[in-house]
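Re: [ENG-882] Designed sequences occasionally contain unexpected residues at chain ends

Forwarding the minimal case from QA. C-alpha cells:
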C-alpha cells in the first residue's frame, strides 16, 4: 500500500505473555482514536507476528516530520491516560523510529508487512577513491649504465609495483611502460618480469622516448597526463630521419632536439617528472632545463628508495588533482 503523508512513526515491541487481549482492546478503542485525533496523524495500523510470538509492529502515517514536535502531540505524549500507564510496562524491548518517507507505491491496503531492522554491524564500509582519471607513461632507462651501476633491478621493481598499485587502487588509470636506450619501445606488464637491459645497450635516447610517450598519451582524453622518467644519465642520442644519432660526450644538437620534444609535450598538457638515480652535473643541469620548460618536478632518489619516492608521489598527486 502507498503510505499517506511524508513521515511516519514506527514502533516494535514484545508483549508480556497473558496481556494480549487487554492490550488489543486498549489499543483499538483508546490509544488509536487518541492518536488519530491529533493534527497531522493520517492513518494507524497494528501488525502481529504471524508465528504466534507476542511481537507487535505499529505504524503511524503522518503529514510531515514536524508533526512529531508539534504542541498537541507532545502534550498528549507527556500526559498518558491511567489505562496507558497500566499497560506500558508490558511493552518490552521497544524500538521507536521517527522516519521520513522517501518513496511509497501501491493502491490497496496490505494484509501483511515485512520490516527489516538494521544496525551498524550489518554494514560493511568499502573505501573507494573518487579521483580524477590519469594517464601515465613510465619511461625506464635501459642503457648499459643502468645495470653497471646496479640501478636496473630497482627500477624494474618500481615498474612492477606501480603497475600493481594502479590495478588494485586506481583501475580507471592507464599505465604505459616504455623502455629507452638507443631507441625507445613499449612493453606490456606481462613482459616486465623478464625485462632485461636493452640489446641496443649504448645511448640514452630520451628524444625518441618522449616522442613515443606523446603519441601514447595523445590517445587518451582528460587533462591528467604525465611521464615518469627513471634514468641515471643525460641524453646521448636523438632521432634524425628515423635513425638514432649517438654521440658521447653528448652533442648540443642532442640536447636541443630532446628539449624541443619536451616543449611539444608541454604544449599538449603532459607533465614530465624525472627521477634521477645519479647526481652527475650534466644530468642535473639538463633536468633543470626540462623542469623550466615543462614545470614538472625532478627528484634524486637512491635506488633502494626509488619505489618509496614514486609510489608515494603518485598517490599524493592523485589526491591533489581531485
Amino acid at each position: 500500500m502507498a503510505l499517506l503523508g511524508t513521515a511516519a512513526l514506527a514502533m516494535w515491541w514484545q508483549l508480556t505473555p497473558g496481556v494480549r487481549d487487554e492490550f488489543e482492546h486498549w489499543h483499538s478503542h483508546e490509544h488509536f482514536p487518541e492518536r488519530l485525533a491529533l493534527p497531522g496523524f493520517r492513518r494507524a495500523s497494528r501488525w502481529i507476528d504471524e508465528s504466534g510470538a507476542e511481537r507487535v509492529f505499529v505504524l503511524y502515517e503522518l503529514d510531515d516530520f514536524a508533526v512529531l514536535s508539534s504542541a498537541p502531540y507532545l502534550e498528549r505524549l507527556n500526559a498518558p491516560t491511567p489505562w496507558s500507564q497500566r499497560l506500558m510496562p508490558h511493552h518490552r524491548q521497544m524500538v521507536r523510529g521517527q522516519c521520513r518517507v522517501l518513496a511509497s507505491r501501491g493502491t490497496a491496503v496490505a494484509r501483511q508487512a515485512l520490516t527489516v531492522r538494521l544496525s551498524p554491524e550489518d554494514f560493511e564500509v568499502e573505501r573507494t577513491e573518487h579521483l580524477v582519471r590519469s594517464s601515465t607513461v613510465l619511461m625506464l632507462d635501459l642503457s648499459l649504465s643502468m645495470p653497471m651501476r646496479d640501478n636496473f633491478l630497482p627500477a624494474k621493481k618500481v615498474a612492477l609495483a606501480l603497475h600493481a598499485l594502479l590495478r588494485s587502487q586506481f583501475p580507471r588509470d592507464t599505465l604505459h611502460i616504455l623502455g629507452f636506450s638507443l631507441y625507445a619501445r613499449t612493453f606490456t606488464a606481462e613482459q616486465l618480469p623478464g625485462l632485461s637491459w636493452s640489446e641496443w645497450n649504448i645511448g640514452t635516447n630520451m628524444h625518441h622516448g618522449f616522442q613515443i610517450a606523446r603519441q601514447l598519451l595523445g590517445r587518451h582524453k582528460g587533462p591528467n597526463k604525465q611521464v615518469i622518467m627513471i634514468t641515471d644519465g643525460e641524453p646521448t642520442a636523438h632521432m634524425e630521419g628515423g635513425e638514432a644519432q649517438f654521440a658521447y660526450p653528448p652533442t648540443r644538437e642532442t640536447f636541443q632536439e630532446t628539449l624541443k620534444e619536451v616543449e611539444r609535450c608541454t604544449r599538449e598538457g603532459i607533465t614530465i617528472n624525472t627521477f634521477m638515480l645519479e647526481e652527475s652535473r650534466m644530468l642535473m643541469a639538463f633536468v633543470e632545463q626540462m623542469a623550466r620548460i615543462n614545470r614538472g618536478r625532478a627528484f634524486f632518489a637512491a635506488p633502494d628508495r626509488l619505489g618509496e619516492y614514486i609510489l608515494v608521489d603518485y598517490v599524493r598527486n592523485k589526491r591533489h588533482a581531485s
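QA comment: On inspection the terminal residues look reasonable. Residues 60 and 253 are 84 Å apart (CA to CA). Proposing we downgrade this to a documentation issue.
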